[in-house]
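Morning!

As promised:
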Amino acid sequence: MNGADALITTLADNGVTACFANPGTSEMQFVSALDREPRMRSILCLFEGVATGAADGYGRIAGKPACTLLHLGPGYANGAANLHNARRAFTPIVNVVGDHATYHRDFDAPLNSDIAALAAPNSLWVKSAECADSVGPLAAEAITAAYGTPGGNACLILPADAAWNAASVHGGVAEIPAPAAPDAETVAAVAHAVKAAKAPVLLLGSGACREDGIAAAGRLAALGVRVLTDTFTARQARGEGRFRPDKLPYFGEQALKELDGADLMVLVATERPVAFFAYPDRPSVLVPEHCGLETLCGREVDAAAALNALADALEAPAAGPAEPYAPPPAPAGKLDAWAIGASIARHMPADTVISDDAVTAGLPIFTQTRAARAHDWLSLTGGAIGQGIPLAIGAAVARPDAKVLALTGDGAGMYTVQGLWTIAREQLDVVVVVFANHVYRILGIELSRTGAGAAGPAASKLLDIGDPRIDWVAVSQGMGVPAQRVDTAEAFDEAFAQAMAAKGPRLIEAAL
Amino acid sequence: MNGADALITTLADNGVTACFANPGTSEMQFVSALDREPRMRSILCLFEGVATGAADGYGRIAGKPACTLLHLGPGYANGAANLHNARRAFTPIVNVVGDHATYHRDFDAPLNSDIAALAAPNSLWVKSAECADSVGPLAAEAITAAYGTPGGNACLILPADAAWNAASVHGGVAEIPAPAAPDAETVAAVAHAVKAAKAPVLLLGSGACREDGIAAAGRLAALGVRVLTDTFTARQARGEGRFRPDKLPYFGEQALKELDGADLMVLVATERPVAFFAYPDRPSVLVPEHCGLETLCGREVDAAAALNALADALEAPAAGPAEPYAPPPAPAGKLDAWAIGASIARHMPADTVISDDAVTAGLPIFTQTRAARAHDWLSLTGGAIGQGIPLAIGAAVARPDAKVLALTGDGAGMYTVQGLWTIAREQLDVVVVVFANHVYRILGIELSRTGAGAAGPAASKLLDIGDPRIDWVAVSQGMGVPAQRVDTAEAFDEAFAQAMAAKGPRLIEAAL
């Protein structure tokens, strides 16, 4: 057993059995050790941003960490944007970052850099295994750290010599921290405040949006409490049979309008809402002026338990309202996000996972699918586009029996377009829908909101991605994913129905 | 004038007139200000790694910085791997990274992160403009910092409010530091040591490999001094009419064999050579045991002047040997890197710029083009693959009259494949040659060298990228770059000759 064996055994012993990888020379011992640990499934990604995004998707669905395998500082950096998103989703991930042999670092060879410094901003735990016998125990520590509470990404730096030298120990069983129980006094105080309020609003963060949290929030809705979720949540249980909270709008002024009249906001596993961006003369904090603020629980607490405790204290019914299955009628004519959302709601089977990186198209689809079959919706939690395709990869690996739907803008899709190859390679049951509007549409909206006025020729050139037009069918097929282009609502509906009926990789370019 | 205007005016006043950009909401003021500054050429890249790699290529060829425009921490992180390469190339670059408005940061909105911490490992200067009136002066400071000596990448963080608020000053003319003059005493001492040595070797770093440095090194070669360059240099003047030094081999044992018998190594704008990676039981330092070590000059010194001073002290002739134009004969039969190198040497016009991200194919091409027309060769200085296509973009923008050739492995090419779109968008005169061997070939070699043994099924799966095979013609055409696939030496020779005779974007998939 060498250090790499100790690492992989420790990971597998603790249920970390998926590895999204793009290795290099310094990771060859890890790669070789994979041949000796059949429990670990390794999945090659042609760019590290695909690997880290996939690990995020896996963690959100599996509820346990995957590991990534990354090549020194540059490999980590390539994956850092999707780790930023993962950090904001509180997803457990164990990043294994290969490094030069410990004695080789001081020579500052070309690939040398300060990996720990690069990793620090996105990691809740960073350590380097300086000898083979520390690899296993540190792997166990990394797993514990990744689980949270709440979860996040841990970074284990693995010098080449720590991997290739003989190891005498592995890490054993890692402690998996349990979320804290709700605080009874806080629950009682919040119950009191809710009773006293005329128009209380509950705001749910990611930790409160899984099936149990949504169900518990539904009980409070049955009492007339308004329930909203954060604009972007890691994973939200939605559709048939579930309670449907509203989503806090993205634009601050719309959010404040939505909250107008609320006299109490109760935060559940989240913090006081703020605008995604600042704009001249618009507020940063999205709490109405005379609205009180209470926190039912922080992110470290079992939010479903807290919500149920609050519901019990308020003598709420055992269950709240449940969405029926009521898809919109078949769309016709012009192809737009509303029409596409209707088709999705009509055809997607129960237990579909939706990975949303559709930017401006996201909200119409979200709205249209509110009464679709039961599904999970994964949002872009950190705002770093290029998450849609990678997240879908990880979700599909975590739940091979489910349909996974990646919704991506064309601009966002190009960020991690290499992910299509991994979908083909692994023959994942992923359908990618590209919203090909040939423009960074959100930026056209944001330009004027930031007070920058209308776009002249130079500015327009930085918002337009339509010259040349990207042929998504060619790009997708070139990476092994069968694809088609549709430009009417009817054609999309038919293509999407077919994709849902079949199994395996598929891309639909929605020409908007 | 707002802060964004002050920034762009300061940049343009100092000759920074190319901006490789992928902006977001927080950069909209900068985007808008582009309409008011016609001197600035902005070039949209669909991923930040393309933007930073292009800025590196621009800086290497133009000898002055381009700027990038990046979107907060994740945008910077996406560009960090190619900035790692740029750091190792000592390329002047001014990275402008948009940030939340200063007063908005503390609310920790989803895109918030510690940009300065992310940028620190790759930057020689990081500052944030906390108010509009600091933007211009800090831009001038960033330009001075980027120039060096030696150059590097500077990171100016631009909060949204510093960009949109009114500014009363811009930055004026930045100081451009001149490289230090060679130290006469050191030159005399090194001359003495060279005279005393039986087998002296000169090792040239990036700063000594431009046309003037290579010419000066040639004078010393005329005296019988062995001249080598670092394995990877930022930009090397080569081909017809130039002196041809040898390259220090990549693998340590080959490097030591090459240096066998040398009793003096003189370092010119570089440091003692070390192995690219550590391997069990192989040395890290690539200096033979009884070889003396002298430093003619550090990277802060005008290396050509130092070499000429040394040549004068040794009474070398005014000029060294010059390579004739002597391309290899037309290749025939099996298509491999040697055949491709022959075609490149035969057909590429004078003043071509070659961006090399060809990994295992790079050395054969380098060897075959030693007596080609005069050209510049840009190497992968930092080992972070995915540089080839982006670097070519920047080189083509810096020198629109030259042919630019991007040599890329298929694995490396997929990293920043989005760069093809920018080549098409800007109609750059770039020919991309993809070495499609469907495998991370270097890793197959490295696996056994690290003592990891032969690859079993799981390990092999992480080295092989041939399932599915990437259809580079489809991918390239899908992004707007005309492409063809060739699989014989004759077909490549013909395709390459045609590409050299034509102008504009082109991709050739060399099916190996």
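The two ends of chain B are 56 Å apart (CA to CA).

Hope this helps with the figure draft.
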